[in-house]
Amino acid sequence: MGQKIIRFSDLTGKHVEDDGDLVRIVVRQHPDLVDGAVEIEALAEELTAVEDLALDLVTIEVHRPDGEEPETVVLEAAAFDRLASAAPMAEVLRGAKRVTRTGASQAAAPAGARERVNYASVEHAGTPHKGRTTDAEKQLVQQHLDEINERLAAAGIRTIDLGNAEHVARYGLEAVARERGVSLG
After folding, report:
1. Where are the beta strands (DSSP E) in the chain?
2. What is the top-level taxon of the source organism (predicted)?
3. Which end of the chain has fewer beta carbons closer than 10 Å to its terminal beta carbon, N or C?
4. Is the pLDDT score of 40 beyond 90?
5. What is the residue-averaged pLDDT of the chain?
């Protein structure tokens, strides 16, 4: 007895006649992604217009003087270029100081050039970040709060404060706060 595998495009559901027509697509960033990059397949013909749809984007990091984690912002290149009023943006960028990457400063690397941080690991759990806090990260913070706060403090990053209602809600620390007699008021 033989088996036949029937494949379909993840984008349109169209039947794939020839595996040679399939294109592998890795989605690295999307508002609905929660646990890292995913892979989908589509017919090459479905992606013929993808270059025409592409946007010229700029990724910047905003380092504020308050010492909080830098904020990464992605915006259209034309909108970013309009921020430069003293000289054209190309000239501003040519004259700008180069950023040197060090082991401690991987934040300077473009988003696509570095691995996504796994906040559901003891070495990263509790570190301030944008996006959803996963159940795995919450569980780690609940189980290792003191260890995580020691790591954060040693790195000069804000610690998780049981007196801070936002921190308690983000990491599901209501029971820990009650257990330690901390009132959220």
Report:
1. 7-8, 15-16, 22-27, 38-43, 57-62, 71-76
2. Bacteria
3. N
4. yes
5. 84
pLDDT at residue number 104: 44
Nearest to 54 by CA among 76, 21, 79, 30: 76
At a CB cut-off of 8 Å and minimum separation 6, what does 81 contact? 88, 89
Please state, in angstroms and rounded to a whole number, the distance separating the CA atoms of residues 84 and 135.
42
| Measured CA angle at 168 (ends 166, 174), to 5 deg | 140
Distances (CA, A) of 18 to 3, 119, 159: 16, 40, 54
Kindly list the domain boundaries of the chain, sorted by start residue: 7-51, 57-111, 118-185
> By C-alpha distance, which of 154, 144, 150 is closest to 176?
144
- Contact status, residue 73 vs residue 62, Cβ threshold 8 Å: yes
Q: Phi/psi of residue 159, each to 5°?
A: -90, 170
What's this model's pTM, rounded to 2 decimal places? 0.42
The per-residue pLDDT for 50 is 82
Distances (CA, A) of 35 to 10, 109, 133, 135, 136: 19, 20, 10, 11, 10
Residue pair 174/165 in contact by the 8 Å Cβ criterion? no
How do residues 159-178 score in pLDDT, each as one tens digit? Answer: 999 998 889 999 999 999 99
